[in-house]
Specification:
2 copies of one chain form a homodimer.
Chain A (H helix, E strand, L loop, with lengths): L26 H15 L11 E3 L5 E9 L5 E2 L2 E2 H15 L3 E12 L4 H18 L2 E10 L7 E11 L15 E4 L5 H9 L17 H9 L4 E5 L5 H13 L1 E6 L7 H10 L13 E4 L4 H9 L8 E9 L5 E4 L5 E4 L12
Helix pairs in contact in A: 1-3, 2-3, 5-8
Chain lengths: ~350, ~350
C-alpha cells in the first residue's frame, strides 16, 4: 500500500478528510450520505434511499448510457469532475435524440480526499443536473485506501425517453451531406491539460463542459434532416470522423479553415504539440445534416448560447472500400486525418 | 505518481498488460473494445456501439439502481469482481421486486492490469448476466495510470420493470411479522477477507455471490405478504436491521441460534475477530413477511437451490421512540445489535 495522505497522518473521523470508515456501510457511511451527499441532490426519486429508484416513464422506447470519469485534476477552469459526470451522460443521451429522464451517480472516493472538495463537487453535480433538467435518482458511494490515485472517480448512467424518429439514422447519409460542429473545438482537453501542475502554461482557456439537451432539441426542431449526431469527447473530431467514415464506408472531407478554434486553443495546442482535432470536447456536437438543410440547422445552433460559434466544417464524400477522412489545409494541401493511436491526453474525462 | 507495474518495465502495447494508450479513445481503445470486451457481451442492444442503447420496455414503472465495485482481491473463492458487479445490481433490482431489463457496465482499468485477468473478469460478467437473464446494453472503459490501487473497479447500473404491487411496502410492517433470511450469512465477506495475501487463513469458504431474481420471484409467487426485502451487503444483517428498525420505528428481535451460519464462517469470524452479523453477503435476501405467511414463503425459499438454508431468524417488535435491534443469545441473554460504526472489511464489494 502507498503512503498515507499528507494531512499530518490525521485520519481520525474528526479530521476534514475521507477515511476508510466512511465506506464501511456503518454509521459513518450513513452520516456521509445523510449530511454531505443526499441533501444536495434532493428529489422525490432519491428520497426513499431504497436499493433502487422507482421511475414512471412515459410510454415508448428508452435510451440508456453510462460513462466513467477519471479526470485529473478534479477541478479545472470551467468545471470539475461533478459537472463533467452529469454533462457527459446527459450529452450521450442528447446526441441519441433522447430526453434525459434520470441519472445514477456512483462515487469511488479515495481515503484522504478533502471533504470540502467533495462538497464542491456535489454542489456542481446538483447545479449541472438542474441545468440539464434531470434528477439523480439513485447512487452508491465506496471508499478505497490511499494510493495517490487522484482522490475520486465518478460513474454516471442515464436513461432518457426516445421519440419515434430517433436516434438519427446514419444509414441515410449521402454524398454532399454537411458536417457541422456546434462551436469552438478542443477547449475541454486543453483546459484540463493546462490545469495540471508543473506545466506552467498560463492560458485563458476554460472547459466547454455543458449539458447539450437544449441545443440538440433546437437543432432537431429546425426542421432539417439530421442524420447523425455525436459528441466529440476522447479522440476529438478526428477520432469521431474516423469512426464515422468506417461505419458508413464513405470518405469525409474537412476544411481546416472552417474548423472553429479559439486563438487560445490554437496557441495551447502548439505549445503542447497536440493536434486540436484529436483533443477532447465536452460541450460540442458533431452532426451530419442533409446538404439542403445545413444552413437551417446551423442557424438554429447559432441562435443558442452554446451554439454561437457553430460552423459547417466539411462534407461527406463518396463510397469507398478504404474510407478516409481528409483535411483540406489552410495552405491548400490535403492530409489524411488519422484516428489517434493511443493516449494523447490521459485522464482528460 | 507511484512506481510502474512490475512487468519488467515493459508497458509496450505488445506486452500482455493494460497500457494508458488503451484508454485514449484512439486505435488501441477501439481494439481493446472490439477484441476483448464487446464480443463477450454480444447482444442486440450493445451491438450498434452508439453513445447509448435503445431499449423498448414494456409499459409501466421502472426501477433504476447503481453500484460501484472496488473489491480486493479481484478474484476470490466463489467469484470475482465481474460476477459481483452483475449480481450486485441485479440483486438491488430483485429486492425492489423488479425484473432486470438491462445493465450498463463501466470499467476503470489501471495501467499494468493483466489482460488475461481482464478476459476472465469479462467472461464472468457474461456468465453472470446470462445466469440472471439480463443483457449488458451499454458500457464505458477508462484507463488510469499505475498507482498500485488494485487493477480495476467496475460500476454497473441497471433498470428493471416494476409490477404494480412492487416495491414491497415497509409501511405495512406490524408487530409479530417474521424476519427471514434466505441462507448462510457472512460467506462473501469472509471469503474475500481470507483470500487476501498475508492472512494465511486456510478455509473452505466461498463467496455466495449469485443473482437472486429467480429466488425472489419464487418468494413473491408463494402467495404470502412480503412487506420488505433487501440484500444484506455492506454492514451485513446488523446494518440492515439497524436501518430498518430506524425506518419503521419498531424494535426487532433476532434469535442467535436461528441465524444460519456455516461452521467455516463461524470459525473464520472468530479468527478474524469479526461479528458475522456485520459481515457482507452478496447472494442473500432479508425479508419481512406477515406472521401467518412466514412458513409459506420459507418453504418457497427452501425449494430453490439458492434458498435451501433459509430460516426465520426473528420477529418485528413494538413501536418505540428509540427502536433497537436485540439479539437473544444462545446462552439465554440479550444484547443490542449495533450498526457497525465504520469499516470492518475495506473493499469487500
Amino acid at each position: 500500500m502507498a503512503q498515507s495522505p499528507d494531512n499530518d497522518g490525521d485520519s481520525r473521523p474528526g479530521a476534514n478528510r475521507i477515511v476508510l470508515a466512511h465506506g464501511g456501510g456503518g454509521e459513518l457511511t450513513r452520516r456521509l450520505l445523510a449530511e454531505r451527499i443526499v441533501p444536495k441532490l434532493a428529489n422525490d426519486l432519491l428520497a426513499p434511499l431504497a436499493d433502487g429508484a422507482v421511475i414512471d416513464p412515459p410510454p415508448g422506447r428508452l435510451c440508456m448510457t453510462t460513462d466513467a470519469f477519471v479526470v485529473q485534476p478534479l477541478e479545472f477552469a470551467g468545471g470539475d469532475i461533478g459537472r463533467l459526470a452529469v454533462c457527459g451522460t446527459v450529452n450521450d443521451l442528447a446526441v441519441m435524440g433522447a430526453k434525459p429522464l434520470a441519472l445514477s451517480l456512483a462515487l469511488v472516493l479515495e481515503e484522504g480526499l478533502d471533504l470540502d472538495l467533495l462538497d464542491r463537487v456535489m454542489d456542481s453535480v446538483a447545479a449541472a443536473a438542474a441545468e440539464a433538467g434531470v434528477v439523480v435518482a439513485t447512487g452508491d458511494t465506496k471508499v478505497v485506501e490511499y494510493h495517490g490515485a487522484g482522490g475520486m472517480t465518478i460513474t454516471t448512467a442515464g436513461i432518457g425517453t426516445l421519440p419515434a424518429n430517433m436516434p438519427p439514422d446514419a444509414g441515410t447519409i449521402a454524398a454532399g451531406d454537411a458536417v457541422l460542429v456546434t462551436g469552438l473545438l478542443a477547449e475541454h482537453g486543453l483546459a484540463v491539460m493546462t490545469a495540471r501542475k508543473g506545466l506552467g502554461i498560463r492560458t485563458t482557456l476554460r472547459s466547454d463542459v455543458a449539458p447539450l439537451s437544449g441545443l440538440v432539441a433546437a437543432m432537431l426542431a429546425a426542421g432539417g434532416q439530421v442524420k447523425f449526431m455525436r459528441d466529440p469527447t476522447r479522440g476529438g473530431l478526428a477520432g469521431l470522423l474516423a469512426d464515422l467514415s468506417e461505419q458508413i464506408g464513405r470518405n469525409i472531407e474537412i476544411d481546416e479553415q472552417a474548423v472553429p478554434l479559439s486563438p487560445a486553443a490554437r496557441h495551447a495546442s502548439e505549445l503542447l504539440g497536440l493536434d486540436p482535432l484529436t483533443v477532447a470536447n465536452e460541450g460540442k456536437v458533431v452532426a451530419v445534416v442533409a446538404a439542403d438543410d445545413a444552413e437551417k440547422v446551423l442557424a438554429a445552433c447559432r441562435g443558442r448560447a452554446l451554439g454561437k460559434a457553430a460552423a459547417i466544417v466539411g462534407r461527406i464524400g463518396q463510397v469507398s472500400n478504404w474510407p478516409l477522412v481528409e483535411l483540406l489545409t489552410a495552405a491548400g494541401g490535403r492530409r489524411i486525418v488519422q484516428r489517434p493511436y493511443g493516449e494523447e491526453l490521459p485522464r482528460i474525462c
